[in-house]
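2024-03-11 09:14:02 INFO queue: dequeued item DUF3048 family protein, len=368
2024-03-11 09:14:02 INFO validating residues
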Amino acid sequence: MKRLKRAGVVLLVMLMIFSMAGCKKKTEAPKEETKKEKTEESKKTEPVETKEPEEAPANQNLLTGLGDLTDGAIGKRPVAVMVNNVQDALPQYGTGKADIIYEIPVEGDVTRLMAVYGDYTTVPKICAIRSCRYYFPAFSETYDAFYVNWGIDDSIADYLEALNLDQYDGINNAGGLFGRDQDRLNKGYSLEHTGYFDGTRFAEVVQSEGRRTDLADDKKGTAFNFNGVNEQLKPEGSDCKTVSIDFGAASATLTYDEVSKTYLKQINGNPQMDESTQTQLAFTNVFVLETDISVRDDIGHKQLNWNGGNNYTGYYVSNGAVQKIHWYKDANNERSDLHLVDMNGNEIKVNRGKSYIAVNYPGQSQFQ
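2024-03-11 09:14:37 INFO prediction written
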């Protein structure tokens, strides 16, 4: 009996020990779970470090997105200048300082340039100045720019008057800003390749004449939807180191320079230089906009669709890559913005820097 009693006591003690052990485990488990929950909760409530987007500089050039405007040019209108681009007029000077350059065919499928300068107080002396064709002001009005040329196609006089351009024309030496480059004359250049515009005096003349220098309220935004201040991004597309454009009687080639991250321009197989600085024209961005171009009269003047359209093809090239896009301006509204959109209709973002814009026949460009 004693043995049985003793055995019963031992059994009872063992049961109590196991019971206590089980209780301990049950009470400890929730503690571990609570600790885990607290860790997860702390992760949820930890502040996430966000990077504030860098603000554009106060002296941002609206054409390039760069902070290089003089104080006197902030909020002021740019200047668009027509430049002779035939072989016999080369090399030009003053073009290297332009922020945007348009190249578009004229009679005989040679091309003409429109150089646009974002700072009206620092425009250089430019040569050789050439005459206007109606589709160039249709693009200059995009930027609310002063328009500079030497002569016009007489058939568009009424059209230009209707645009109410702030125009400076070398044919009547408007503002006393035009002249003939004597050095070129001495070298045997034809007269039509010697006209210059003295942009260094432009701000002084404009102010003395009381012309509007402030940008219109609807033109105070940037020319493009720019990437961040310190961003240099590749377009969404394939690699592109060389752009070759055939205008008909002239060609342009733009070759990517890895060091400067710009495209260096050639004309008809030769480097296109700014004679005054002895530098080759270079651009961060290259745009090729395809459109309808035809001959409209016996002289050979062009009919050109400057409106583009939702389905009009274009290409954006920068930082070693090319992206296919669409382009358009609002129909019959010269002052409307130039819209550059991807295949889904969303506005593309563009790197900050100088831009070259070719407006040309469809299918006449190669991207390699």
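2024-03-11 09:14:37 INFO annotate: The CA atoms of residues 9 and 169 lie 120 Å apart.
2024-03-11 09:14:38 INFO item closed
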